[in-house]
User: Fold these one by one.
Assistant:
Number 1:
Amino acid sequence: MTKNDFYRYTLDPDKASDAWFYSLVEKQLDRHLNVNPDVELGVIKLWSDILIRDGEQILGVVGTGLNLTDFLNQMVEKQDIYSAIVFTNYKGAIQLYQQASLIDYASITKQTLDKKQVFHLLDDDASQQTLKRHYAAAKQEPNQVQMAFVHRNGVRQLASVIYIPEIDWYQVNFIDIERFLPLEEFLNILIISLISLAGSLVLFYLLISFVVTRPLKVLDTSIQKLAQQHQVKPSLGRFAGSEIKRLVRHYQKMSQALLDQQNKLEQKVALRTAELERLSSCDALTGLLNRRGFNEQMDLYMTDWEAHNESFGLINLDVNQFKSINDRFGHLSGDIVLQEIANYLTALVGDMGVVGRWGGDEFLILAKEADGNLERIWRHLQASKTPLSVVLQGQLEEIQFSFGQSIIQPGESLEKLLLRADKAMYEMKFPTQRS
């Protein structure tokens, strides 16, 4: 299998469909979430993209798509007709909404004027400016609800804004209070109260308080908790009216469905992001840490050395005659040898240290000195004259290594530590060239 077997197509910066890739690289967004339709599959997906780096150099982009079609359909089915829920990115571009036509697909590639923003759903400039101020306030206090009245669809509505820092999105809820809590629902109660208690204002006040005011206050508290992603079941007294109870039941179903869907979305995004982070630090061929992942481990060891004086060492291991193996048996057999070496080193080191593939046929081992792990690994390598045998195309091939080690010294950098281990390895590999 050659690298051409994995080739699909080449991205073109002049194509609108490929512009997302170059926008991510240009803006250097290490992690980005974006909603975009998959035309070939006929679905809408939430794309999670992560930059692949070698130090400061950007090598490419790796990403995965989460199908949002069912989630959007459920939003349309379960949302109340008197309310609307909108998810936007950090610039207000609509990412999730019950009206799919208003979703700002591929917002990373668009200019601000071309974006479908939540502010454009409002009727006037004053409402738009109010919502923008609450966006800024919400980002200053993540997971805290910011509320304001705005004009939308010709009526005055309550807008609540909450910032979700984990995915750098905002959730905006619009509620038509006058239709969500219609006074007509309580007309029968008011008529009965006026006829029955016309002569007693005090008793009338107490009745309204028990039947309406207190249950609505409980419901209002529950709605505020819901905005903080906490579901609190309203506890109604025995005198609460049937209309209030029906309203509360409807609210409970809606809030439960909303929280369930939001939790599922957050869990899926978190799982996909964690998996992408793992893959970006892992060598695809051997399963060992790649250069980026091994650098992170060296930084951790260096931190322990500087903070607690926990000395550690580095072993540089190179495969002898690896080019000859590739020339005689082919690169596929060379890959098999690298995989067998990775398995051998993983079993040898175990939990005594960390193994990584630095590049090509070069491997690195990191271990602490105080517990004797570094010395045990080093002696085992020295004792094995022919540590590994691999059958390649029916022939038994003996695999040998050259290796060298270096132990961290006071004031020494990781670069110098790597250089000394590399030099020690080459002295073993080419003893006649020692200076």
Number 2:
Amino acid sequence: MPRMLPRGLSSVMLLGCASAALVPAPSSRALLNPAWSALRPRGAKMSAAVQLEDIKAAPPPALTPFSLAEAVSIQGFPELPWRYALRNLVTDETFLEQGWARRPFKLKQEWEFAVNAYTMGDVERDVSMLPAQFVAHGMQWGNGIYNKPMDAGFSFEDVSRTMSGATVVMLNAGFIVPSLAKVSLATLEATRLPIWLNVYLTRPGLASSTQLHTDKQDVLVVQTTGRKRWRVYAPPEPAEAAELDPFARGKGTDQMDASKLKLLVDTVMAPGQVLYIPAAFPHETDTVGETVSEKESSVHLTIGIDTHLWGLSWAQACATDAFESASKCARAEGTVDLFKPGIQPLLRKARRWH
């Protein structure tokens, strides 16, 4: 995987660079999340010899009776396994040192509690709880692809009809749907970072479920029903599109070319499987090939960890500190280079992309 250049004041020259924000230095963990080490399960040991794909985060069978009791007590949605698995994953030493913000990977261990945790039946019950602007699908308009929200007063039948030709997304469902809010809360408690959760609905046979693009968030993809193929690539070289936000490539009129990228992951997600994708890593999905014979629609949860959106990254801290230090030095020494016309707007723009 190509390494990307550091970001700081130098990002004025290379606004497309993303990797320093993606790869926190060891000393940055307390800055990003001071409580991570405290959240590691008691007795947990460093797992440097474990491969990322081999991380075992799901609760052992011994917890099953507790899960059943919890499901009965909270109206059918077992929150305990989610809390257990998410905490174990994000506090795992291998994940922190090798995976987080560095490399996409798919867990070998299935999260059995996630199988059918959210189905099309649940969508039918819940989707009308969301405002129309939160239920959308991608559409071609001119030379670009954009999200088109549902019309006011939409119904599940409208969603079902739209799914005949496009993936429908329930944006921000983790803020509104009670059962999904429990998953969001479990992730928030595990990471101590801002969280959002979307639900994606795709019928079998869709050649392009989502176009090749990048996002600002590190995400955990949890497949709950059906199957979907994912391809994840290494970030492109910054110089190829220095004027574009590396965290928002492939959107609008910006079209990415997969043939120019290094493929890192090519997998079909089945119910209970978990995929991690760092921010700024291009990815695309479909439901053709070996998934086309699937009878059930694909439903998956995308849990986003929002560090970059809120400036909660090591690169942002460094950029802010460097900018403020340089400003103080310039004022103290009477130099004016930092304050030439046009420089500060560029600095502000660069900082906004961290």
Number 3:
Amino acid sequence: RKISAEETVKECVTTFSRGAPTQACLSANALLTCAIAPIQTECGEETSEWVIKYVTKFATAIDPRCKLASQLPIGKVIGVGCTAEEEAIIEHCAAPLNDIGARMEELFQGGLQAMIKNVNSLAPVFAGGCNLTDEFRQCAAFLLSGRTPCVVSSCMIHAGDGICDQPDPTKAIDDNLSCVFAQVQEPSFAKCVRSTLTTVKQFTLSSFRNILPKFVDCTEEIVRVKCGETPIKACLFV
């Protein structure tokens, strides 16, 4: 109740509670997206898991096809509220882009230190994703136009915003990654790393995505001042 009264969450709760049955899946996803991170922080993991289960049960009872973000595969382009034919189009168009997600999963194996050590390996993966994102947009143009109820998961599609439109995306990625990780020398940034990322027992892309909202909240101010908005936006879409 305390969290639902906060302005950042209140609107999502209102939309979810007043939404039409046809919008149940979208409003449920929106609610979880804006509410779970503060619930985890204020109320703990057990409470957040209960909320996820409750919202999931509600949404899938109304729309059995509904896919909640917590159930989605990591690093894949997914359709929500789509017909079988639309799902087939997404699967076909997104196949090359989904391979990027699989490669990212590999880079996260070996824990946090291994990921930091291999940070230079992320640049070519992200750079390759820029071209593949353009190809996906062209291939699935009809579904992305908003003319059907089918909604395409935007995380992988928007992760390159502010980078893919640069003259040299690889350099832009290197510059942004280098800037973010250089902040570890700052005491406040290092404290955020210790209180969020290093608390993860098994460091995978999935666990990284779960802890990322807390990490972004903690480091957002210093990253915005030192590196600008682009790294923050990229993190929010992982």
Number 4:
Amino acid sequence: MYRDRRKNHRCDGGTAVAESKGFAIQRIPGATQSVHLPSASAAADVVEGLVESSQHSPFGMVYFPELSRSLRLIDLEDASARRASFLRAQDLPPGEVVGVLASHRPEFLVDLFGVLRAGCAALILPFTPGAQHYQAGLRAIVDALDTAGAKTVVTDKGLAGVGERLAELCPTIRLVGPGRTAEREPLPQVFHTQPALVYFPPGAVEGRAGIALTHGQVVAGIRAVRWSAGIGLEDVLVQWLPLHDPLGLFGLLSQVFVGGRVHVFPPRACGAAAEGVLRYVGESRATVTLGRAAGYARLREAAEAGATGRLDLARWRVALVGGGLTPPELTRFCAAFASYGVRAATATPLYHVAEAAFAVTCKQPDTDPTVAAVDETALRERGKVRHVHEEKGEGTARILSSGHPVVGMRVRTVGPDGAPAPAHVVGDIEISGGAVMSGYHRDLRSTLRSVRNGWFRTGDRGFLWNGELFVTEPAERVVGEQRG
């Protein structure tokens, strides 16, 4: 048995299990810059996190650049409290699942926290501007409501038209429109064990189980990724993901939870206007970004084309990449941004599944991403991991690491019989930890099929090497290129 210097990587009897323990170092030997660790928060639930952050960091801010609008956290705290009082006056029973349209607007956050502070769970509804004018877009929302058993949807003034079309399609839906009480009123206590969020993985809702997370699981996921990626209170985040996408939602909540600053772009911004987003990253002095590989590829293309002119991106130190990054694209990313002052260590691959809050693994701060060179034939035909020199060239498969498990997360690979897979053999990836869902919402059968002895079966396949996870066969998940 041996242990990695920073993570626990146990090799017992030829099997591998990787897990993370909390660490609080200020500098990594050989690193070029200090690791920024977040200030500890005692908040046990999402609501308490907002209240604390608004008090300790009143000028924390959420920006919506495309709308030229922003929302201070101190204002969000007050508005959501009065919104919650209004919702309670509409006879919403505590514990009810209430639909919230995930729009890239300040009102989304007010409605989301209003629902949570009223003691309800928020069902995150897929919202894409323009799509709701068509039957298919409306049907996706109705399917989500039906599958989750939600009968109420909150809407604001700007989304009144969407609400009316939903009511026409499904007359049983109850709409609660805009409104806040003039004064703050007593609100129910929120506990870390009660449900906070219900959502669906990106893609079609019909026939899929909803994912339910408690307040405690959401908080555990946020803390774990921030600590493991070295993201601190002073960091500025720019992201361009849909807010009904769990990755985009948790990225936003992670900054709200600690009182940080976050700039939220819709996914289309990294399409036609990628150079504008890249310029914004520099001008806003962003230090952290969040997106998927497709979005980063568009930023890289804008950098290669010189579309942004002279731009200093030296402050950009963490680029969280939610899947899809390949070794060739990593090489292109590093080459394109080197002249802008961006280091190779900035690229931070994540492994995430919708059933866990935020992420399962991520690259350690101030370290270059790891690429494993293995024998392609042995990997493809026998599922064996045989490391070779990269210089070998032909017959070599290069696989990018997804990093180490985040704090509090355990990852293992197992064989067809459910027993831990031998070292250097590809197996099914299973995860366990405080940020992993307890089960699917209203779907015991799917829960029993996916959770075994406390381990969630992700459906992905891969191997562990030196405590790092390498995904070789991702399960089919509908995350389109347009999602950033």
